[in-house]
Specification:
The complex is a heterodimer of chains A (356) and B (149).
Chain A (H helix, E strand, L loop, with lengths): L3 H5 L78 H10 L18 H29 L7 H26 L14 H6 L5 H22 L7 H31 L4 H13 L14 H11 L5 H25 L13 H9 L1
Helix pairs in contact in A: 2-4, 3-4, 3-6, 3-9, 4-7, 6-7, 6-8, 6-10, 9-10, 10-11
Chain B lengths: L4 E3 L2 H12 L14 E7 L2 E8 L2 E8 L9 E5 L1 H14 L8 H6 L6 E2 L5 H4 L1 H4 L1 H9 L6 E3 L3
Classes of the chains: A mainly alpha (356), B alpha/beta (149).
Chain lengths: 356, 149
């Protein structure tokens, strides 16, 4: 109970914040996937600016505040620099298709392996742990410098970081699960993979990471079922391949968007692809590349032991061929197919060498 | 006891679809949201299977021409389909060399193809591989006979 005298001394309640709001009376409805980001693209909330002036972390659709500090310092503020048309969908898919390396891999199916096979498996696991560190670190840098107006793309990248984190842990677990351990670091984080982190532009990074780097690793993950010695390893590779395919999809869709909306940058993007193709077969970044400890471990795994190295080598040639074919088709899908027709790309030459 | 259904047929696929759509465990563990249209080619017979959201929304017969509209199609001779489904039936899920991905890798050209040549759409075979595996794994609860047996 209050006294009338006390109330008279109180300042009037200021509820002016109630009038400062974005578009009102929104009624987003859940669809067959639940209430997704796509379902809340309602009216102005769904409008993504071509250029963003948002430097303050303001949520898209929320009214600006004059006193706000420039907390973000965002450098990615042009839509075509980062956008993909199906970002919302990829994000929701990433959330829905998560898996646990602790409980969704039938670890009990791992049994002791011959020493050479276990060492090869551990070498490959060591390599993959290294490269997944990069695959997590690099997109993470770009999240914080992207305007919140493009939050859908940021969230896909956030989900990717989670995926890569799981890949790091699952290969580390595999290395430590069966009497082996980690092998000598391969140095895969130098050279081309390390160079991904030197990218000054998001599309430069994405073409290196998503299209060439992860595209190559995707083929390895797919082929992982051929070099798996138990259902646990098969599950690891299959589930990692799913995640990786989603990351590659982001890269393909981004390049496609960029090629349509910013055609003036096509020549520049071709330069990134030139560089990627140059290192595709030879660089340590590619586990199926030439003369690396990873390609030798792949030969042992694919062949079935050190004494069947040649048989494994024949299979690794098939992997290289498939990597190149799939890369080429993805680049075509992204809208840069003419490079294979006009003599700019050396990929056809590389494919011929691989077939020889 | 339910009547045995013949593979391949719409009736068989619908029975698998029912099991797949009503089994919660197929939505986790790397399964979940999936959007794609898949063709199945068994010798000369074609079926079109649609996945939407968290389930399989439809199955129907198709034509070779219609395979041009699907995201990708899985093509195997009847004997290979039968081997895969018998492995699943015997183990409750595919093991060893009988998972879809392993079968795909077992031949130079693979079993997952597209007529449109768009790698983005063909990659859906990999992106949704666990869901596709769960779908066929669901067939272990369907009493199955085979056309040629």
């Amino acid at each position: 109970m209050t006294t009338p005298a006390a109330d008279e001394n109180l300042p009037e309640l200021d509820l002016s914040w109630m009038n400062r709001r974005g578009p009102w009376d929104t009624h987003a409805k859940p669809g067959k996937y639940g209430l997704t980001l796509a379902d809340i693209q309602v009216g102005e909330y769904g409008e993504t600016p071509q250029q963003s002036q948002n430097l303050t972390g303001r949520s898209r659709g929320s009214p600006p505040r004059r006193a706000a500090m420039r907390i973000g310092g965002y450098t990615v503020r042009t839509k075509s620099d980062i956008w993909v048309e199906n970002a919302s969908f990829l994000y929701e898919e990433a959330l829905q298709r998560q898996w646990s390396s602790a409980t969704d891999v039938p670890w009990e199916t791992i049994k002791p392996l011959p020493d050479d096979v276990e060492q090869a498996q551990c070498q490959l696991a060591t390599f993959l742990t290294e490269v997944e560190f990069v695959a997590g670190d690099v997109p993470a840098r770009w999240i914080s410098v992207t305007t919140p107006d493009y939050f859908e793309a940021r969230q896909v990248l956030l989900a990717q970081v989670m995926d890569e984190s799981r890949h790091m842990d699952v290969f580390r677990k595999r290395a430590l699960a069966n009497g082996g351990g980690l092998m000598k670091a391969t140095g895969a984080t130098a050279g081309f993979v390390g160079g991904i982190d030197l990218s000054r532009d998001f599309t430069e990074m994405s073409s290196r990471l998503h299209i060439s780097g992860e595209g190559a690793v995707l083929t390895i993950f797919r082929m992982g079922e051929l070099m798996a010695y138990n259902d646990a390893e098969k599950a690891i590779y299959r589930l990692c391949a799913q995640d990786e395919a989603r990351h590659v999809a982001f890269g393909v869709m981004h390049l496609r968007y960029m090629s349509q909306k910013a055609p003036e940058r096509r020549e520049e993007i071709d330069t990134y692809l030139d560089e990627a193709e140059g290192g595709m077969l030879t660089d340590a970044a590619n586990p199926a590349g030439r003369l690396t400890q990873t390609s030798e471990s792949l030969c042992i795994l694919l062949g079935g032991g050190r004494d069947k190295f040649d048989e494994g080598f024949r299979k690794i040639v098939a992997i290289r061929r498939r990597q190149l074919q799939e890369y080429k088709k993805r680049v075509i899908s992204a809208g840069f197919g003419e490079r294979f027709e006009n003599g700019r790309s050396r990929l056809n030459e590389l494919m011929a060498q691989t077939a020889a | 006891m339910s009547e045995a259904l013949c593979f391949p047929s719409v009736e068989w696929l619908n029975a698998v679809r029912e099991v797949f759509n009503t089994t919660d465990s197929y939505r986790g563990a790397g399964g979940g949201q999936c959007d794609c249209t898949v063709g199945l080619k068994v010798d000369d017979e074609v079926f079109i299977v649609e996945f939407e959201g968290f389930g399989c929304s439809s199955v129907q017969t198709g034509t070779d021409f219609e395979l041009g509209n699907v995201d990708f199609y899985i093509e195997m001779p009847m004997s290979q389909w039968q081997d895969m489904l018998e492995n699943i039936s015997g183990n409750g899920h595919a093991i060893g060399e009988y998972t879809l991905n392993t079968i795909d890798l077992g031949s130079e050209e693979g079993i997952a193809h597209s007529k449109h040549g768009d790698q983005y759409r063909q990659d859906l075979f990999v992106r949704y591989n666990q869901t596709l595996q769960f779908f066929f794994d669901a067939s272990h609860r369907v009493d199955t006979t085979f056309e040629n047996s």
